[in-house]
Amino acid sequence: PEPTHTTPTSRGYKPNQQVTNCTRRCGNIDIQFPFGLEEGCFAREVFQLNCTNTTTSTLQMKDDDENQVTYINIEEGLVEINYTADYYNLRFSANYIDEESNLYMSSYWHTSSVQWAVANLTCQEAQMDMSRYACVSSNSTCLIVNSTMNGFYGYRCKCSPGYQGNPYVHTGCQDINECTNTRGICEEVCHNTVGSYYCTKCPPKMDYDTTTMQCTSIKRQNIYIGIIIGLSSGFGVLFLSLSGVFIVHKWKSHIRRQMRRKYFRKNQGLLLEQLISSDENASDKTRIFSVEELEKATDNFHQTRIVGRGGHGMVYKGILSDQRVVAIKKSKVIEQGEINQFINEVAILSQINHRNIVKLFGCCLETEVPLLVYDFIPNGSLYGILHSDSNTSCLSWDDCIRIALEAAGALSYLHSAASISVFHRDVKSSNILLDGNYTAKVADFGASRLVSIDQTHIVTNVQGTFGYLDREYYYTGQLNEKSDVYSFGVVLIELLLRREPIFTSESGSKQNLSNYFLSGLKARPVTEIVAAQVLDEATEEEISSVASLAEMCLRLRGEDRPTMKHVEMALRVLQTERLKLCHVDPGNAQEKEPLLTPAREKDSSDQLVASDCVNANLASENMKPCYSFEQEFMSYDGVSR
């Protein structure tokens, strides 16, 4: 039987906190009543603690500098104490008992959970003196604390079932909502009561939703399930779609890289690299561009960058990373058998450094058809200037002679001065470009053919532009240097007559310019068929000379035509004679005092007047722009007719 007696410990317990605003934390350790730090904040002296350092959560018992309290559990009646190894605490020894020390029970000398009691009384004994009874919460109960090891006994308080909190405070034990704190406590609907709960079933045609923990109609529940399934499916499809797009993008990128490598090998890129690396001159001038560089330079070959369309492809204006403005020619599909010839052509053109031939910067071999990168020529083509909408061309007669001479010199160089002969095969005014100084630049070698020096001709499929096409080549298929001579003769006629190679006559029918010119020479004087501007600026002798030269170039048999070297020499003589009449040194074209003569009369058309000399000297210097910015280079590569 439990002893019945009253000890001093029963008198020392104070069930109510004496002061307000007590400190209830030491660092991260909660200190709840009956424990406390300040006077009036604890229930008895043995429950007084000392917080020595809040930063390190150093909490010690009163008058005890050795042992440290690390945790206090009010509901379980436990205190976690960290004992020092060399300290023998008589407070927890069974051999030493004072009036309050035996309220703690422990049997270890190191970290241990220590049970504690509020008084050495049984529950019945404690309830006999309600003024000192510790379980002050109305929803609390008394528990016996005893130990068979050291004879310890006493009581502590705990909240009743269905409640939780601090039983040593009047309102410390609060109701527990089992329905929210304990999921699955009911199979269907849970209802919380004070200190307890009860379960009910859902009404008919309703089912319990474990997500919302409420009864919902079966129809609505199906809607919710459908929404959840739909959202899940939607996110799943979105995820799969994004994954698919990413995979397809990576796959397409891989395919593009594979295709570029395939085209590079197909277009003999390795051969061209070998040719460039073995030729020091070519390696300095020619470069193999990647398709990414040219796509960036042309905004991915945007249609607004197109500056020319022709029979052999399209030309784009581009700006390289080094800020060079270039013309990028994208040719039409060519036969595989022509790829090797194209590579040789690029290798040859990369070594050509003629002032009247468009400079080739390099090529790109990563596309189905190789791309050529040329120097950009800003002032368009001779064709565009001669046949512009304005009635009067901005080119003077002296400019026409100079441009014809420069173009003839370039073709002569290709035919006889280069290391291997090059037949242009598409000579026309739209392929004679004019740079910023209106210097002629022969362009578009897309139809050109390379011929060894010992060959006089090659047999090819007929290719060219109607109106310029050599008739002998058209009927025989034999291409030779005289085919370019014939085409150049048509250009000379354009300069004289200022008509297109295929033009509409006054009767409304299409007419060939060369036929019109040759038949006109037989029927009437040449001065009656040339353009009015030419008639005003040139002498009759000069007109006759150019017309005679054009007629020789247009002869039906190629062997009867002059070579481009002879054409160049004839034009140079014509330019020299004209400059001599104006007292200008043909070597440097410096203006001197003009020869003043009376105004030209009808029977003295072979004389130059002062105004003609001025035009001869100042034509290139004072030439007005022939193109607007929007029209620049629009005729590059020309239009096949």
TrEMBL record:
GO CC, any one term = plasma membrane
Q: Which GO terms describe its biological process?
A: cell surface receptor signaling pathway
Where's it mainly located? membrane
The residues that the entry says bind ATP are K330
User: Keywords on this record?
Assistant: ATP-binding, Disulfide bond, Glycoprotein, Kinase, Membrane, Nucleotide-binding, Serine/threonine-protein kinase, Signal, Transferase, Transmembrane, Transmembrane helix
Pfam families reported in the protein's UniProt record: GUB_WAK_bind, Pkinase
Gene3D superfamilies attached to this UniProt entry:
Laminin (2.10.25.10), Phosphorylase Kinase, domain 1 (3.30.200.20), Transferase(Phosphotransferase) domain 1 (1.10.510.10)
Q: Which SMART domains match?
A: EGF, EGF_CA, S_TKc
Q: Which segments cross the bilayer? A: 223-248
What GO molecular-function term can you cite, just one?
calcium ion binding
Q: Write down the PROSITE patterns for this protein, in alphabetical order.
A: EGF_CA (PS01187), PROTEIN_KINASE_ATP (PS00107), PROTEIN_KINASE_DOM (PS50011), PROTEIN_KINASE_ST (PS00108)
Q: Which residues form a coiled coil?
A: none
- Tell me the ranges covered by the Protein kinase domain, including all copies: 301-579
**What compartments host this protein?**
Membrane
Topology of this chain in the membrane: Single-pass type I membrane protein
InterPro entries attached to this UniProt entry: EGF, EGF-like_Ca-bd_dom, EGF_Ca-bd_CS, Kinase-like_dom_sf, Prot_kinase_dom, Protein_kinase_ATP_BS, Ser/Thr_kinase_AS, WAK-like
* Highest taxon of source: Eukaryota
Q: What is this protein called?
A: Protein kinase domain-containing protein
